[in-house]
Amino acid sequence: MRADIDTNVLVRFLTRDDPRQASIASNLIHQGVRIQKIALVETEWVLRKVYSWKKEMVIKAFEAIMGYVKVVVEEQEQVTEALTNWAVNPKSDFADCMLVAGTDSTFATFDGGLATLPRVQLLP
């Protein structure tokens, strides 16, 4: 059975800050899990705000985990697009890039940091 995992499982796996929980998380992930997009958004926030990870570290970690054979990421193409846009746009944040990647139409915003992303319409 493939389990969906909570943000805290993903954080333990990536940070290894609690050896016992990191081992459990690692075993579960290597058996096969599904990661929801919202868990990635939460994980990014925790890694950057609580653990002071840089954007580049988060991107590398997410790309690595998405490459695991037994890991299924919800709408992985959107996540990949969001990571790509976040990597090249210093004024955006991951959550906003996920929102933009999730639309198949125009994404309207007052946030000038998103103005360079595809499909974004900056409102006056």
What does it look like?
This protein is mainly alpha-helical. Helix 1 (7-15) crosses helix 3 (37-49) and helix 4 (55-66) runs antiparallel to helix 5. The chain folds into two domains: 3-74, no CATH class; 90-124, no CATH class. The chain has six helices and five strands; from the N terminus they run βααβααβααββ. It starts with a strand and ends with a strand.
List strands and helices in order, with pairings.
Layout lengths: L2 E2 L2 H9 L3 H13 L1 E3 L1 H13 L5 H12 L4 E3 L2 H13 L5 H8 L5 E3 L10 E3 L2
Parallel strand pairs: 1-2, 2-3, 4-5
Helix pairs in contact: 1-2, 1-3, 4-5, 5-6
Count of alpha/pi helices:
6
Low-confidence stretches: none
Please list the strands of the largest sheet in the order they lie side by side.
1-2-3
Span from first to last CA?
49 Å
* Number of separate strands: 5
Number of domains: 2
> How confident is the prediction overall: mean pLDDT?
94
Look at the helices and sheets and give the structural class.
mainly alpha
Summarize the model shown.
The protein has 124 residues and is mainly alpha-helical.
Features:
11% strand, single chain, 5 strands, 55% helix, 3-stranded parallel beta sheet, 124 residues, mainly alpha, 2 domains
